[in-house]
Amino acid sequence: MAHRTGSRVFSGGLWEERYGYARAVVAGPWVIVSGCTAAAGGGVLHEGDAYRQALTSFGVALDAIGKAGLSPHDVVRVRYYVIDDEHYDEVGRAHAELFGEVRPACTGVRVAGLIDPRMLVEVEVEAYREARADQVPGDSQETRNGT
C-alpha cells in the first residue's frame, strides 16, 4: 500500500529502497509515477498473462496517484513497455478499460526485456491537476488533512 511523505509517494516495493527512488513524485500540479510492474512480495503476479499484469501495474500507478490526491481522470500521459509485440493488444485492452473515458496521451514501446524475465509489461503514468481557485499557494491536501 502506497503512503505519502511530503512530495514523495512510496509503495514499499522491493526496488524503491534498494535503488533509491520513490513510486511517485509530486511536483506542483504534476504527479509523475515511476515504472510499475506486477511485482509483489519478491515474485511476479500473473506470469504469462500480459493483460492481468497490465491491470496490476496500472493499479499500482493509480494507487500512487490517489495517495497524491489525484484521480484517474487527472491522468494525462501513459507509457507502457512490452517485451513482445503480441502483448500490445492485451495491454491496450487493459488501458482502454481503465482510461477509455479519460483518453490520455499514450505511447507503447517494445523493449528487449525488463528487470525480471517473468515481467511482460511495465507502465509509467503522469497526472496533472490545475490549481483550484480556492487553493492557497503552498497549501496541499496533505496539509488540509493534517497528515
TrEMBL record:
Q: Which InterPro entries match?
A: RutC-like_sf (IPR035959), YjgF/YER057c/UK114 (IPR006175)
Output the CDD domains linked to this UniProt entry: YjgF_YER057c_UK114_like_6
- Protein's UniProt name: Enamine deaminase RidA (YjgF/YER057c/UK114 family)
Q: What is the lineage of its organism?
A: Bacteria, Bacillati, Actinomycetota, Actinomycetes, Streptosporangiales
